[in-house]
Amino acid sequence: MSFWGKVKTSLAVRAALVALMCALPVWSAVKPFTDYIDNVVASLRFKALQRPASGDVVFVAIDKKSIDAIGVWPWPRGIHSEIIDRLTAAGARDVFLDIDFSSPSSGPEDEKLRQALVAAGGGTVLPVFRQHESAAVGSPTSVTRPIPNLASNAWLAFANVKLAEDGLIKTFNMADELDGRLTQTVPAVLAQVDDTTGTYLVDYSIDPSTIPTFSVSELIAGTLPASAFADKAVVVGAYATELKDVYPVPLYGPLAGPLIHILATETILHDRLAPEIDQTIAGLILAAILIGLAVKLRRYNPIAFMAIALTLILALETVAFVIQSSDGYVIRTGSAWILIGISLLLALSERSNFAHVRGRIAVADHHASRNTLQSIIANSNDAVIIFDENLVVLDRSASADLLHSSDEDGEEHRHKLPEALKRHVENAVTIFKAGRSSVYSVSVELEMKRKGVEAKYEASITISHAERVINSGAQVDAFIGSIIARDVTVRRKYEADLLRFSQYDELTGLLNRREFTNRLQSAIAPQLVVAIGLHRFSELSTTLGRNACDQLLIAIADRLSGLSRVSHLSRVDGDCFVMALRLPIADFNPIQAEAILRQFATPFESSGSEIFVDARLGIAIFDDNRLPAASVVENAEAALLDARSNATANWVVYSQKRAQDQLRARKLEQAMRASLERNDFFLAYQPQVDLASGQMVGAEALMRWRHPDFGLVSPGEFIPVAESSGVICDLGIWALKKACETATSWPTNMTVAVNVSPIQFAKTDLVAEVKGALANSGLAAHRLHLEITESAFLDGTERLLGIISELRNLGVRIALDDFGTGYSSLSYMAGFPLDKLKIDQSFVRKLTTDHQSLLIVKAVISLAQGLGLKLVAEGIEREEERQILAELHCEEGQGYLFGKPQSAQELLDQTAITDAEKAA
Question: What does the DSSP assignment read for 278-312?
Fold first, then answer.
C-alpha cells in the first residue's frame, strides 16, 4: 500500500474512533452495557456508604406467619380495623396500609374498617394506584382508589413504584395528579413534608435490615410494647413471598414494596433528596477532552496515557463517591469507562501514524518555510521591517509605508528606517551592543500624523545576534533587527471610552457608584456624605415620560454640581444622587442640609416646562479613611430610607444605634429557628376571670423566649422580627399545639386563648392546623379561643371570612383583640362572625382618671352587648377598675389584679387556691 493509502486508512480508523466517542453519550444501543456498569458501581457505593435507618418509620409485615395465623387471604377487613385500633392505641403518628381496598367486601366488614378509620382521627393513610387500563402499549391510565366510605375517612396517597429502563426501582415521585389536584405519594406523606413536585432517587445506602420490623401476628397477639410505635409512622404491608409484592432494586435484589416506600421515606428524613442528572452534555464534554488528550499525547509513550486514563477513572469514581456520600446524587460513570477505553485506542493509533507522517511533513515544511515567512511579512496587516547592522532595510511589508510621514514618501525611503522609529532603534542597538545577551527586545509607543490624520502605534523592536560572511571570505559578528508595529488607534479610543463608561454615569456624566466610592476612599479631609433621593419620582416618571425625566435628572445633576464645597458627586441609582462635601470640622451642621434642599426650592426646566421636585436626604460622616468608604455610602442610603418613610423629616442623619438595632434584629431572626428546635420558646398563661363571680374561666397563652446568649427577649422585640421574616408561622403553629396540649390538664370549664398573626391567615392553612392541634391534644373545640387583631382584616376579607366561618363551625371561638387601638372599623364587628371583643388596656387603665376613656368603654360595652358579643377587658390592675367594669356588665377581665403571666403549673396552683377559698 502506498504512503498516502496508509495515511487514508489511518485517518479512517481514527475518524471512526472519534465518531464512536462523540456518539457514545447519546447512543441508546450501548445504554444496556453502561447501565450494567453503572448499577454495579452504584451498588458498590451504596454498600460502602451504608447507614442505619432513622427508626421513625416502622414496618409491620404481613408475613407467612401472619397469613398462616389468620388462615385466609385476603383477610376480612375486620382484621385491618383491629390493626389500626392497636396501632392508634399505641400512639402511632401515621399508619399506612399498603393494601388495595378498591373493591367492596361484605357490608359488616367494610363498616368495621370504616369505624376504625374514624376512630383513628384521620391519621391513617390508604393507597391509590395509577395503572394502565389494558395491556396494550400506550393505553390510557386511570386511578384505583379505596371504596368511598373508606376513602372519605383517611388520607389518600399514591403508592406506585416505577421501574427504570434497566428493570430496577431507582426513583420515587413526591406527588401525582388525582381529580385535577396534586396528591402526595406515600413517602412524602409519611415524612410530613409539604413538597408536591419532583422525582428523586431512593437512597439505597440506608440499610433495610435496620428498619424496625414486626409481624402482624405479634401485633394482633398483643406481645409488642406500645413504645415500639409511639409517635412513629407505621407501614403495614405484604412481606410474604406468595403475595408477590416484591420488586428488583440495586444492591439488595428483590425487595418488598412496603420496604421500598419506607426507604424512600427515610431518604426524605435523612435529607438525601437528589434528582436524576442528565449527563449527556457532561459525556460529550468528556469525549471532547479525551479526544484532545489522545491527540496531544501522541508524542509520548502509551504508558503515560494509560496512567492518565487510570487517574481519570479513579478521579471520576472518587468525585462520584464523595457526591453520593454527601448529597445523595448518583453519578453514572459507565459511559466514562468506555470512553476512556476507546480514547486509549485512539491515542495508540495517533502515535503510530504520527511517527510515520512526521518525517514526510518535515521535509515539505523545510522547503515551504522560507516562502511562507516572506509571504507573511509581505502581506501582514502589521507593519514589519527587517534591517541589518547598518540599519539598512532588508525586507518590509506593504503596510510599513504607513510608518513614514508624508515627507518621506518615495522609493528612496523604502530602504531606510522611518524617522519616527530611528531614534528608538538606535537606542535599542546601543543597549544590545553594551549587553551580553544574544537577543534584546523593547516595546515603544508612537503617535504620528500622516496627511492630517493622527494615529497611535505599538512597536516591538528586536535585535538578534547573527554571523555573516564578507567578500574576503572572513566571518564577522553582526546582528539583524526587526520591527513589528501595530495600529492601535481604534483600540486606544475604545479603552478611553471604556474607562469613561466604567467611571461615569452615561446619562448625567456624574461619577458612578464605584468611582465615587474609590475617590471618597482617597479623601484626606473629613467628608459629609449625603444621599439625595427624589420624592415621588416614580409618579413623575409615569406622568412626564422617560425623555422628560432624563432631562430633569440632567438638570438636577447640573444644579447640584454648582454647590460649594462639593468634592465628588455621583448618580448611584435611578433617582438617587450621592455627594461628598468637604467639612471644615468633622461634624454635621443642619445649615449644610438646608443648603442642599434649597437647590430644590426653585423649579427645574425639562422639555420646555417647569417642574418642582422635592428631595429627601440621608447623611453620614466620613472622617476616617481607614474605614470602607462603601460602608459610609450605604449608611447614607440607609438614613435616606428612614427619611423617605418619615413624613415629618426632610433629612435623617445616620444613627449607629439604628444599625445596632438592625444588626440585633438580624441576629434574632437567625437564632429563632434554632431556638424553636431547641425549645427555647415557652408559653406563659395570664388568667381570665369572670368579673361577676371572680371565678377563673380561662387564660391567654403568651409567647416568651429565653435565648442562651440574648437572655429573656421581649415579645415586643422578637414578634415584629418573626412577622417580617415569616418565622411567625412556625411559632404560631407551635404555640397553638402547645397551648392545646397544656389546656387538656385544666378544669373543663376553663378555656385557652391563643393569638394568631395576620400572616398565619395569609400563608398557612390555619383551619387544618387548628384541626390537627385539637385532634392531637384531645381538647374540646369550644375551649379554644383564637384572638386576632384588626390588621388581619386589611387584605383579603372575603378569604378571611371563609376561614373564620370554618373555625367557628368546628366550635372554636373567635375574639377581636386590642379593640380601639387600630382602625376600629365597625364593619369588622358587623360583617364578621365574632364571639368576643377585647377592650385594649390603654382605655381600662384610665377608667378612674379619664372621663373620655370611661365613655368609650361604655360605648364599646353597649355595642358588644347589642351584637351579642362577650366582652373581655385587658390590663385590669386595680380593684376600682374591676368594680366599674363589673357594674357596666363587662363579663370577663384580665390583668395583674388577677394574676401575672405564669407557668401552666402556677396557673393550676392558683386555680386550686381560688377553688379552696370559695369552698371555705
Answer: --HHHHHHHHHHHHHHHHHGGGS-HHHHHHHHHHH
Beta strands 696-707 and 171-173, pairing class? unpaired
Say how far apart CA 306 and CA 576 lie, in whole Å. Answer: 62
Strands 751-755 and 696-707: parallel
Position 626 scores a pLDDT of 78
Q: Quick one: CA torsion of 276, 280, 284, 286, rounded to 10 degrees?
A: 10
Predicted TM-score (pTM) above 0.90: no
Q: What is the pLDDT of residues 138-148, one digit of tens each?
A: 678 888 899 99
Indicate if the pLDDT at residue 459 is higher than 50: yes
Q: How many CA atoms lie within 13 A of 770 on its CB side?
A: 27
- The single residue listed with the C-alpha cell 521591517 is 385
From the number of C-beta atoms within 10 Å of its C-beta (0-12, 13-18, 19+), residue 78 rates as middle
Q: What whole-number distance in Å separates Cα of residue 219 and Cα of residue 229?
A: 11
177 catalytic residue (yes or no) = no
Q: How far apart are CA 72 and CA 66, in angstroms?
A: 10
Of the candidates 844, 798, 804, the residue with the CA atom closest to the CA atom of residue 820? 844
**Are 442 and 428 spatial neighbours (Cβ–Cβ below 8 Å)?**
yes
Residue 828 contacts residue 793 (beta carbons within 8 Å): yes
Cα 181 from Cα 197, distance rounded (Å): 12
Number of continuous H segments (helices) and E segments (strands) in the chain: 30, 34
∠ at Cα 581 (580, 587), nearest 5°? 115
3-class SS of residue 902: strand
CA angle 455, 460, 466 (to 5 degrees): 145
User: Where does 53-108 show beta strands of DSSP type E?
Assistant: 57-62, 94-97
User: Cβ(785)–Cβ(754) under 8 Å?
Assistant: yes
Residue 846's φ and ψ, nearest 5 degrees, are -105, 10
Distance from C-alpha of 836 to C-alpha of 870, rounded to nearest angstrom: 5
CA gap 98, 126 in Å, rounded: 7
Q: Can you say how many angstroms the Cα of residue 178 is from the centroid of all Cα atoms in its chain? A: 29
The residue annotated as part of the active site, out of 266, 790, 874, 891, is 874
E strands, 598-669, in order: 604-606, 609-611, 615-622, 651-653
Q: Are strands 836-839 and 246-249 parallel, antiparallel or unpaired?
A: unpaired
Exposed e or buried b per residue across 589-617, where buried means at least 16 C-beta atoms within 10 angstroms of its C-beta: eeebbeebbebbeeebebeeeebebebbb
DSSP for 391-460? Answer: --EEEE-GGGGGGS-GGG-SGGGGGS--HHHHHHHHHHHHHHHHS--SEEEEEEEEEEEETTEEEEEEEE
The confidence band for 6, taking pLDDT boundaries of 50, 70 and 90, is low
pLDDT category at 13 given cuts 50, 70, 90 is confident
- Tell me which DSSP letter residue 75 carries: P
Q: Within a 10 A sphere around the Cβ of 786, how many other Cβ atoms? A: 22
- SS3 of residue 351 by DSSP: helix
Around Cβ 67, how many Cβ atoms within 10 Å? 19
Q: What's the whole-number average pLDDT of the chain?
A: 84
How many angstroms separate the CA atoms of 335 and 40, rounded?
13
| Paired sense of beta strands 696-707 and 181-184, if any | unpaired
pLDDT in tens, 491-522: 878 877 777 788 888 888 899 999 999 988 98
Alpha carbon distance 699, 697 (integer Å) = 7
Chain mean position to CA 387: 65
- Nearest C-alpha neighbor of 17 from the set 357, 355, 351, 349: 349
Q: Which has the higher per-residue pLDDT, 663 or 469?
A: 663
Q: Identify whether the C-beta of residue 153 lies closer than 8 Å to the C-beta of residue 233.
A: no
Q: 604-606 and 609-611: which strand pairing?
A: antiparallel
Does 74 sit behind a cis peptide bond, omega within 30 degrees of 0 on the bond before it? yes
